Amino acid sequence: MSQQLLLSFKKDVSLIEPEETEQLVLQSSNRSLTFKQARSGLKTALKTLADGGATLVELNQMVQQDDGNFLALRFYVYLQKFSNLGWLCHSVLAEGKAIAIAVPITSDYQFPYTEVAVNSKYMLSRFTYCHQVSGQLLLESPLSQTQVLLLDWKGTALFSQLAKPYSCHELVTGIPGISLETVKQFVSLLLSTQMLSEASEDGTIQEQANTTLAQWEFHDLLFHTRSRLGRHANPSGGTYRFSGKIEPIPALKPRMSEEAIELYKPDLETLKTTEASFTQILEARKSIREYGETPITAQQLGEFLYRVARVKQLIQTERTEIAQRPYPSGGALYELELYLAINSCDRIPSGLYHYHPLAHQLCRISDRTETVEALLDDARQSIGQQSMPQVLIVIAARFQRLAWKYESMAYAVMLKHVGILYQTMYLVATAMELAPCGLGHGNSDSFTKATGCDYYAETSVGEFALGSQVKA
Fold it and tell me: In terms of domains, do 284 and 347 share one?
C-alpha cells in the first residue's frame, strides 16, 4: 500500500458513534462493521478516514501513538478489509491538495499499488475514457474496478499527455508547475487502476499483445461491463427511476397515418391441426436470400404479422401500461415497433408502412421515396444479393418504454428482445414456407429520415427481410 497516496472512505460510508458506548460503527448501503471498545487511536484514524483522509504513514502514527504497536499492526489488517469491501479511496496530492481520486466501484476490490520508474514510459489504455459527470471529469475503463475523478487542472493535463508514451521526467518538463513526486503518484494511481500501462521501447503496451483484448472493440467491452453486474456500482434492474418524474409513454404508439390497410387474420385453431410440428419447423429453419418470381401476398403478410407481433391484450398496471404479444418481452413492456418497407407485395402498394399491432393494420407513411429506396438498398447489400427483399421489416425501439423502468440494463434487454423477435419471425416464416433472413446491420439515420422519428426517442435496432420462396 502506498506511503504517499491519501487514503479516505467513500462518500457513502458513514461513521456512527453510539452515545455512552465505546463502539464505533462503519456503515455503507449494504454492509456494516462494528468496532467494540474502540480505543482512542483507532477512533481518531477512522474519523480521519471519514473526514478527508490521510496518508498511510499518518494513519499509522495516529494509532501507534495512542494504542501501541500491536494495534497499529491490526489497523493495517482493518485497512485491507476496508479495501476488500470497496470502501477505501486513494488520492494523489499536489501541494497538499487532491488532484485525482480513485473511487472503487465493486465490493470485492483490490488496489494493487504499483511503483513507477521515473525513466520508464507509460501510456493510457485504449479502453480508458474521460467524461463529465455532475460537473466533474471522470476517468473510467471496462478493465478497471475504479473510477478516477480529476479534481484539478494538473490531473487533467497529465491525463491528456499520456495519450502517448511519456516518462515521469518528460511529463514534469512538459507541464509547468508540477513536481516529480506528484507525477509519480498520478502515474502510479492510473497504473494501479488498470487505466495505464508501461510502454516498451517501440511504444506499444502490454494490452496490445493480448490477443483476447485485441478482439474487443472499445464500445463492445464498455457496453458489456456496464450492462451486467460486477464492474460498476450503478443502480441496476427495475428501479423505476423516472416514476413520479416523467410520465411513461403508452404501450401503443399513436397511429402514424389514417390511411390504413386492414390485414388478413388467420384461423389459429385450424393451423394447430394442419401445420408441421414444432420440431419439424425448428429443424427446417434457415436464412433464405432468394425470392420467387411471384411476390409475397397481402394475405401471407397479414398472417405473418398476426402470428408474430399482434397485441393480444392491453393491461393497465399501477405504474404503467403493459401488453401481451406472441413473443416475450421484459416486464411485458414491448418497446419494439415494426416498420415495413415494401418493395413488391401482391395487393399492397410499394412504400413505407407502420404496423399497428392492436388494430392489425398497416398505416401508410409514405410512397417509395429516396429514403425508402435507401433502406431497401442497404438491405440488399447486407444480404449480399443482386435483388432487393420483397419486404423489409425494420425493427425500431421506443427506448423510453424500457429506460423508464430499467436502469443500466435497458439497452441490453432491448437487444435481447430483437433476438427473440428474430427467432419468432424465422419460425413463423418457416412454418408458412416463406423466405426469411435476419440482417446483421442497418442504417438508423436513414430510418429516421424515412419515418420522421426522433433518433433519440425511436430508431431502428434490427432489420428482417421477407419474401416468397423460389418454387422447386
Answer: yes
- Whether 241 and 235 have beta carbons less than 8 Å apart is answered as yes
pLDDT tens digits along 64-89: 886 677 677 888 888 999 998 999 99
Phi/psi for 114 (5° steps) reads -125, 125
Spatial separation of the C-alpha atoms in residues 332 and 176, rounded to whole Å: 58
CA 116 to CA 171: how far, in whole Å?
13
The torsion angles phi and psi of 55, rounded to 5 degrees, stand at -75, 165
User: Rounded CA gap, 373 and 386, in Å?
Assistant: 14
- Helix count and strand count (H, E) for the chain: 15, 24
Instruction: Report the pLDDT value the prediction gives residue 70, as an integer from 0 to 100.
Output: 67
Phi, psi of 165 (to 5 degrees): -65, 125
Per-residue model confidence as pLDDT tens digits over 13-55 = 999 988 777 788 999 988 899 988 778 888 899 999 999 999 9
Q: Please state the separation of Cα 75 from the chain's center in Å.
A: 39
**What is the spatial distance between Cα 293 and Cα 333, in angstroms, rounded to a whole number?**
39
Helices (H), 25-179: 40-50, 56-67, 69-84, 153-161, 168-174
Q: Are 313 and 324 in contact (CB under 8 A)?
A: yes
Question: 211 in the Ramachandran plot: left (φ > 0), alpha (ψ -120 to 50) or beta?
Answer: alpha
**In a 3-state reduction of DSSP, which class is residue 146?**
strand
Q: Is 280 within a domain?
A: yes
Q: Which of 176, 205, 227 is the last residue of a domain?
A: 227
C-alpha to C-alpha distance for 254 and 337, rounded to whole angstroms? 11
- CATH no. for residue 147? 3.90.930.70
Task: Write out the residue range of the structural domain in which residue 373 sits.
Answer: 237-468
d(CA 100, CA 137): 10
First to last CA, the chain: 73
| CA distance readout (Å), 230 to 32, 101, 191, 226 | 20, 21, 21, 9
What are the backbone angles phi and psi of residue 468, rounded to the nearest 5°? -80, 155
Q: Which of 404, 408, 369, 374 is nearest to 388 (CA)?
A: 374
